[in-house]
Amino acid sequence: ETYQYYDLPFCRPEPIKWKKETLGEVLNGDRLASALYELKFLEAKTGVTLCSKKLKVDEVAKFRKAVADDFYFQMYYDDLPIWGYIGKIEDGSLVLSEKGNKYYLFTRVQFDALYNGDQVVEIRAFSDPTSVVDITDDIEINVKFTYSIVWSETSAQFETRMDKYSRASSLPTLHKIHWFSFINSIVFILLLMGLLILLILRRLKNDLRKCSSGDEEEDKEVGWKYIHGDVFRYPQNISLFSAVMGVGNQLLTIVCILFVLAFLGILYPYNRGLLSTSLVLLYSLTSVVAGYITSSFHNQFSDAGWERSVFLAGILYFGPLTVTVLILNTVAVSYGATAALPFGTIMVIVFIYMLFAVPLLALGGRIGYWFRSEFQAPSALNRYPREIPPLPWYQKSPCQMFIVGLLSFSTIALELHHLYASLWGYKIFTPPGILFVMFIILLVLTAILSIGLTYIQLSVEDHEWWWRSVFRGGSTAIFMFAYSIYFYFRSNMSGFLQLSFFLGYNAAMCYAFFLILGSISFRASMIFVRRIYRVVKSE
C-alpha cells in the first residue's frame, strides 16, 4: 500500500519536479519526485534545516495515522534505495501518569554514505530518535525538519554495491532453511519415483506379459486394454482444451525466460519496474507460442474451428487478468494509492497488446495450421464410446486432485512462503537458483503423479482422462492459493486495499500455475498412454 511522498505534509520544493517514469515503474507503483535534501558528493553536513513549518490539526492527524500504520518512506540516491520510518509509537501504559500510546514524528534524518574513489557505493538513512515532536494530540505544532550527512571511504567496489540487497537470503539461518527445503524435496521426489517404478511399472509389465501370453483369462484381467478404442477419443470442448495447452506452454516459456534473465543478472532486486516491463513485453511476444501450439493441437483432430481455439487462447488468461486489474485499479483510485494506473498507461498496455500480441497470436495460429499433422493413434477408435463403470469416491476427480495437489504442494511449501514474503513483504528475494530447482522439481513431480494416476484410471476402464489429467496437474495451484489466504491472516496486512490486491494478484499468479502444471500433466500422461498402447499393438 504505497502513496505519494507529498501526500503527507513534508517539506516540499516549489514546484515539485516529478521523475518521468518508465512503463515498468508505473506498473510497480513508483511515483518519484524531487526532494529538498541536497546531498553533494563528499560534502558533509550537520543539522541543516530543511524547512520550518506550522502543522495544522489535519496535517498532524495525517502524520499520526501514518505513524500508527507503520508507514515508511523510500528514496533513491544515485539509484540506491533508502528507507526510513516516519515516526515511532511509545506505550503510554509504562508511565503511570500517561494513558494510551504516545505518537512521535521524526524531524531529523541522518544519512551515512560510503564511497570508493569518485563513486557512491552505499548510503543509509536513519531517523534520529532524539529529534522528535509529540503528535498525539490534535493541536497545531511548530516543526523544524533537519538533516545531516556523513561521508566515509570504503574498500567495497562499485560493481558489487547491489550485492548487499540480495545478501539477506544467504544468512546462515535462511541458508539452512533453503537447503533443508531443497534436500527434503529431492528425497521426497526420489522416494516417489521409486514407488512409481516398484508399483506402477511392475504392474504394467505384468499387464503387458498377460497381453502377450494369449491366455484369455489373464487377458481379461488387463482392464486398460479393453478401452483401446476409446482412450484416444479427443475430449469435449476441444477448442477450450487446445487453448489451455497453448496458454499453458506460453506461460511456461515466460517463466523460463525470466529465469534466464535472472541468471544473466538483468533482473535483480530493486531494479525499478524491470520485472513488470519484462512481463508485459514477454507476454506479448510469446503470444506466437500460444497461437502455434493451440492451432497445431486443434488441427490434429479437426481442420475446422482452429480460429475459435486461437481466439480462446487470446482471452483465456488475458481476459480474467484484465478484469482483475481493472477492479483493483478502481479500488486503488478510490484510495488514492500509487498502485492506480493512469489512463495513459492503460492505453499504452492496450496498444502494446494490439500491436504485438494479437498479430503474433494470429501468426502463430496460421503457422500451426500450415504445418498441421493428423493425430496418429496407436489403435483405431470405436464408433461409439464405451460405457464407464461406476467408480468409488477415491477414484474420482476430486480425490485425485487432492492427492496430486497435496503431494506437490508439500515439496514447495517452504520456498512458497519465502516467495510470498518477497512479493508482499518487500523482503529480499529468494535466489533464482533455488527457485529454479524447486520449479523443476514441481514440474517433474507433477508429471510423475499424473502418469501414475492416469494408469490407475485406465485400469478401471475409465477412458475420459484428458480433462482429468489437466485438473490433476493444476490442483497444486489451488493449494497455493489456499496457502496464500493462510499467509495473509498470519501477516500484518489489513484493510480492504491490501486484501483486494493480495487476493487479486495471487489469484492471477495461481491461475497461471494452474495452466502451466495442467499442460505439463497432460503432456506427460499422453506420452505414457501412447507408449503403453503402442507396445500392446506391437505385441
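(the above was protein one; protein two follows)
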Amino acid sequence: ARFHGNPPSGWWDTARPRPSLAAMFADGTAPGTDVESLWRSARSARCEAKSCQTGRISTAETAVQSHRSRDASVQTDQSKAAVQDFQQEVQVDYTSLLSFLQRVEDAVIKELNKNWKSHAFDGFEVNWTEQNETVVCLHTLSYPEARGQNLQVTSVSWNATGSVLACSYGRLDSGDWSTEKSYVCTWNLHRRGLNPERPDLVVDVPSSVMCLAFHPSQPSLIAGGLFSGELVVWDTSRTEDPVVWRTGMTDDTHTDPVYQVNWLPGAKHRDHPWLLSVSTDGKILVWREERGGRLALAQGFALVAQQVPRSTWLKKFDWGEAAVGVTSLSFSHFDPRVFIVGVEGGYSLKCSTAAEAPALRGTGSSVPLRAPAEFAFSPHGGPVYSVSCSPFHRQVLPGSKRFSDRPRRNLFLSCGTDGQVHLHSMLQPQPLISLQLSKKYLFCVRWSPVRPLCFSLGDVLLFDLEKSSQKPALCIKQAAGEHPVYCLEFNLKHSQLLAAGDATGTAKVWQLSSDFTEQGPREVNHLEWLVSEIMD
C-alpha cells in the first residue's frame, strides 16, 4: 500500500511482526558469486596479441661500397687514338728555339751572376727539428753520498757522443781538501729508466776532484785534475779498476790544485793522448802516456810575473819572480798554438805553445819550462775564474773596405770574483764590453757552440747580443737561496742541452729554446759589425 503523508498510527504493529534483536544480528555465511569478464572473452575472440616489438620490419644489408665497382687511376683511360698521337714524333721548330735562346741569353746570364754574388741567404740553414719555445729542466742529477758529505759539483763534462754527462765532486769553499774523499759520477741520459740519484758509474777518489774533461773522440776516456796536484785518466767502460793513467806524486807533479785539464788538439796526439793541465802553482804542463799506466811530462810552461808583458794597463801588477797562479784556460778555435789563461791576479793573458824563451824560475822539472805569455789584457777587480774563446770568426782579406772583410778578430769572454764579464778582442788590451752582472763571484762562462751572439755564465744567465749587449736575455734559477753555479757546459752534439753544477751538489740539464740554438741569417756578420762599431 502507498501512503501519502505520515502513516496512520499503529500501522507498523499490525502490518508486519517485529523481529527480536537476536534475530536481527545473528551470524550467517552467504555463498560466493562468480562474475565472468566480458572484456577478456571479447578480446580472446578477436585473438589480439601484444608484445614489446612492433610488427616484422623488412631489412636489407648495405655495404660501404656500391654493388658495382671498378678500378680508377689518376690518369684517365687513354684511347687508342691518343696513344697513337703521343707516339708520333714531336715536331720542333729548332730555328725559332735557337733564335729565342739567343735573345734571352744576356738577360739569363745577368740574373745568374746576380744570384751567385748575392748574400741574401748567407748563414741560412733549413732546420727540420721541432721548435722549443721555452727553457725547461730535463734532469736534476745528484749522488746521495756526495750530498751527505756536503760536497759540491766542481765540474761537468759531456762525452764524445753527447749522451753521457760526468760530474766531479769536491769542495771549493772550505774543508780539508787534501784528505776528504770525493767522487766522479756519470749518467747516460739516453738510458731507459734513468735514475737521477743513481749514477751509472761511481769512481771513488781519495782527493777532491777539481776539473774534468772527456776525450774528444773516445767516449769512455775522461781526465780529471785533483786538489793534490795529480792528473788521472779513467776508462768508464772498466767498472772494476777504471784508472788507466796517472801522474803520481813526482817532482814534475803540480804542487797546487789542478783547476783545468784539456786534451790537446792535433792529429799527432791521437794514438798517444796528450793532456794539458793548469794550476795555481803557475805551471802549464803537457803530459804524454807511457807504459805501465803512467803519465810523463812532455813539455811545460811557467808564468812568472817578471815575464808577463808590460803595458800601461797593468799598473797594479807585482813585477817580481813570483809565480802567477793560473785558474782557467781556453784554446783558440782557429790557431791551435794560441790560448788564453785567466790568473789569480785578475788578468787574462794571451799565450802560445810556440814560445821558446825559458821561464825565469828554478822548478826542478825533468824538462825545461818556457814562458808562454805574449800579451796582457786589462784586469778584473779580482781573480779570473773562467775564460772562453769564441768559436766564430770570419777569415778575410786584409785591406778590404767592407766591414765583413776586415782582418779577423778572435774574441773571448772572461769572468771573475768582481761579478763582471768582459768581452775582449785579442787585438787590444781593453775590453770591448764590460758588464757588471752580479755582486757575487762568477765562476764560469761559456760561448755558445751554435750561436755567434750567445753565451752563458754563472747562475745560468743566457745572453743574446743581438737583443741586448747590456742585460741577459734570460735568467734561470738553478738552485734555491744564494748557492752559486760553479760550472756549466754546452753539449756539442745536442746543441739544445746545457749542463750546470752548483754548490748544493746538484747538476741540472737544461733544454734551451730555439731562440738560443738556431743561428740567424748572417749572424756572424752581425757579430763582426757589432765588434767593429765598438772598436771604431
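Reviewer note on protein two: The chain has a mean pLDDT of 81.
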